[in-house]
Inverse folding.
């Protein structure tokens, strides 16, 4: 009877209840969908970040990542690469030479961020060839071919087949020069990258910088289900403690992105919290109105022997039922939204233009889908349920404070 | 139909015949309300005894203290001073929970208006107090249905209050008041919103139930029909018992 009364009371003012229920349902659905979209964006950002960093786990000469000093190399590159490849949980080990230098033509000299890579291995991480607008991606002339960003090539006034001279620093600190032929031009969509980026083969870079077998970086891609942290620990172990080397997870490598995501999550939580606070205040206000309208009824119930505790419980039961209805509707709406966004996606470029960089990572091709993180949905749902029911605590308390005789006398 | 004659008693201490074994005993009862800065003396040292099985009307002009006295006897209100005993139990010091428990187990209420819970049917309203006592659906049905039949509401017992006339609503309230077999039914102007014919039949019904069940009825009223049928008439004036008379049915 108690629940029956609560249920019927809830629908005494259909319009009001529908408005309250809709407010909670829509806010809850919005929360779920926003969470799903944010979590997908974070997942993609982290994935992109791992790829942009060069792998789930990175091995360098000790201190390289912070200083980017060209003398901090992995001298025995072949052995370290082989040892890393044997670590359980490593899907692919990718050797790289990374250097900063100057690239010159008769027209101009520009700074370059050059990567010496093995294209067939890089495709496991990032398919640079998809950005090629002219020529090819290091297929021709593997010994002295170079691929430049479109803006860089433009400033140097070079075209496919033209020669460029790289001035770089050897591991021993001496300057060196090497001749390359332009085999491809790529456009990443990020202005800074297109103005500075260049690729050549690993061997060509080693030869140009007179590095011998040394390399700058080994990027490791983890097998499915293997975390970056556990893989990094295994790599340190396999490299005999990693003396003279540094082993970083991608998260260590791009802390600014992690910080940005954490800040973004915190801002989202505050934003959603504020939206819910507004909704909850309106619910509290409406419930309070309902209590004041029903003073005489509460007086009657109390006169009949329903004690104050149970009157409070009756009010709370009404809220629990309303919350259950609202959350069921909100969950359904949230799920529909989730499936729709997952299916069709929302292109960020359509809203924010072509060049989007987050924490130094190119996100210009990001299409937002939705990702359910079950624990987050459960926690958010519990918070919504708790907060909505809590919004009726004050009105329920007010209902319990009514003296029956006064309630019956003054509110006729 | 027999005639009646009246035994009149000057206001003051209630006659000894009623004091012995009185179900309700009121002593030196006062109740002061505050309306802003103004003190309103609703009761001023009222004394009254009501015996078990009596059919008593509290009459008097507006503001004479009828409803306040009824509220204090029913533990709906607490007096400023004085003492009320019901069935030997002092109810003036009850806390809110004890007062609710007392009302549930000892008193049945019929109010002037807004007697029924609007979201419950007449039957559900009638069984409400039994439900609060923790009775099963079968037990409740066994108690409520005969009373519904007795007051002529069997065919309408699943209607909501707004689908019933004023008289039918009061009948449902009577069933609810009597369903728990309380020792006392307190009725605050139960016929005030009813036409004279409906009032008459309702009072006849309560008189019959009073005779059949031995339940003590105490009314507050202005209604001549109630006063006429009351076995005992207690007239209040300015918060005191002004006149106390018994109608003996010949």
């Amino acid at each position: 009877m108690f629940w029956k009364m609560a249920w019927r009371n809830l629908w005494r003012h259909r319009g009001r209840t529908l408005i309250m229920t809709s407010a909670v349902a829509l806010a809850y659905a919005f929360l779920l969908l926003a969470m799903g979209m944010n979590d997908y964006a974070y997942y993609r950002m982290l994935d992109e970040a791992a790829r942009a960093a060069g792998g789930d786990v990175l091995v360098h000469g000790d201190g390289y990542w912070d200083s980017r000093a060209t003398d901090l190399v992995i001298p025995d590159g072949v052995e370290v690469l082989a040892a890393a490849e044997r670590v359980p949980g490593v899907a692919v080990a990718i050797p790289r030479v990374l250097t900063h230098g100057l690239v010159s033509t008769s027209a101009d000299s520009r700074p370059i961020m050059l990567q010496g890579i093995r294209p067939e291995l890089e495709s496991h991480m990032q398919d640079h060839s998809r950005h090629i607008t002219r020529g090819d991606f290091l297929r021709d002339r593997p010994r002295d071919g170079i691929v430049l960003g479109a803006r860089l090539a433009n400033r140097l006034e070079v075209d496919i087949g033209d020669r460029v001279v790289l001035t770089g620093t050897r591991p021993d600190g001496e300057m060196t020069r090497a001749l390359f032929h332009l085999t491809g031009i790529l456009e990443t969509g990020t202005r800074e990258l297109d103005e500075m980026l260049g690729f050549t083969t690993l061997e060509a870079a080693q030869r140009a910088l007179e590095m011998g077998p040394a390399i700058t970086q080994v990027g490791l891609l983890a097998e499915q289900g293997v975390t970056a942290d556990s893989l990094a620990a295994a790599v340190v172990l396999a490299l005999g403690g990693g003396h003279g080397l540094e082993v970083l997870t991608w998260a260590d490598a791009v802390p600014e992105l992690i910080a940005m995501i954490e800040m973004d999550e915190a801002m989202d939580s505050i934003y959603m919290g504020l939206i819910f606070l507004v909704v909850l205040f309106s619910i509290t206000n409406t419930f309070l109105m309902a209590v004041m309208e029903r003073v005489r009824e509460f007086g009657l119930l109390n006169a009949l022997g329903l004690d104050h505790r149970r009157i409070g419980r009756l009010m709370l039961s009404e809220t629990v039922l309303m919350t259950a209805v609202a959350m069921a509707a909100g969950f359904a709406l949230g799920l529909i939204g989730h499936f729709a966004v997952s299916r069709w996606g929302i292109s960020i470029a359509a809203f924010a233009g072509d060049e989007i960089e987050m924490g130094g990572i190119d996100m210009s091709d990001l299409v937002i889908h939705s990702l359910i993180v079950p624990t987050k949905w459960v926690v958010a749902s519990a918070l919504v349920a708790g907060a909505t029911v809590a919004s009726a605590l004050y009105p329920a308390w007010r209902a319990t404070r009514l003296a029956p005789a006064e309630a019956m006398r003054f509110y006729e | 139909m027999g005639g009646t004659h009246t035994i009149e008693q000057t206001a003051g201490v209630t006659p000894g015949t009623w004091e012995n074994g009185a179900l309700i005993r009121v002593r030196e009862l006062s109740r002061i309300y505050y309306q802003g800065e103004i003190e309103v003396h609703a009761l001023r040292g009222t004394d009254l005894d009501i015996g078990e099985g009596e059919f008593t009307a509290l009459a008097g002009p507006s503001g004479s203290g009828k409803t306040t006295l009824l509220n204090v006897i029913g533990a709906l209100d607490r007096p400023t001073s004085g003492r009320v005993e019901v069935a030997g139990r002092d109810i003036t010091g009850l806390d809110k929970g004890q007062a609710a428990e007392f009302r549930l187990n000892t008193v049945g209420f019929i109010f002037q208006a807004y007697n029924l819970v609007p979201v419950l049917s007449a039957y559900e309203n009638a069984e409400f107090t039994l439900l609060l006592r923790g009775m099963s659906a079968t037990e409740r049905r066994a108690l409520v249905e005969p009373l519904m039949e007795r007051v002529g509401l069997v065919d309408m017992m699943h209607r909501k209050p707004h689908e019933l006339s004023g008289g039918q609503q009061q009948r449902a309230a009577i069933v609810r008041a009597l369903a728990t077999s309380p020792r006392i039914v307190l009725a605050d102007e139960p016929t005030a919103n009813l036409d004279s014919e409906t009032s008459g039949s309702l009072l006849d019904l309560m008189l019959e139930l009073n005779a059949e069940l031995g339940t003590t009825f105490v009314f507050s009223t202005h209604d001549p029909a109630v006063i006429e049928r009351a076995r005992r008439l207690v007239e209040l004036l300015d918060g005191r018992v002004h006149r106390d008379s018994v109608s003996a049915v010949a």
Q: What stands out?
A: The first helix of chain B runs from residue 16 to 19. Residues 24 and 86 of chain B are 5 Å apart (CA to CA). The helical segments of chain B are 16-19, 66-73, 96-106, 122-132, 137-150, 166-179, 196-213, 224-229.
